[in-house]
Amino acid sequence: MLVHAVRALAASRTVDIVVVAAPEDTVESVASMLSDQEFSAEVVVVTGGETRQDSVARALIALPPDVDVVLVHDAARPLVPEELVTAVVAAVRSGHHAVVPGMPVVDTIKRVDADGTVEETVDRSVLRAIQTPQGFERSVLQRAHAAADLDEVPATDDAGLVERLGMPVHVIPGHEEAFKVTRPFDVVMAEAVLARRRAAGAV
Question: What is the pLDDT of residue 201?
Fold first, then answer.
């Protein structure tokens, strides 16, 4: 999954370097595994932190000083299409400080209490399921992480940290192939996507 995720990012001409934050005891093996692959961008492996937030902060430090747009991506979304990566970068460069891809929510969503009783049915037309990569002006993301050191509750994504600064986060259309692989069914879906891409000569 990691190799596919790195390849997906590196495939975009807008990406020059990919920094992978790996658990401390796997840094050498991850670096060795990735060095055996051919990517269209430089790949660097650093030691991650105890939390996702810590890992992103450490990856930020490893970036060259001339990088002004940063993408934060989850390896659990290994099949994100190149066009979505490029679209996120383009949206940041067009003037948005923070950009996230999002998909419309198709299920009916209900808010329930601790006992499982429905409290309300949420208007799904204003909801989006957020994907990665998320894109940021580097200075904004650095400010968000610096401020996050003072927060007691970690954010579930980097856009949430930017929101805490009171800055707007722009949503662009996501892609159905940028799904998260966390369950056995997701693995089946990922294999189907890869099979279709191979048949089309895209892998």
Answer: 83
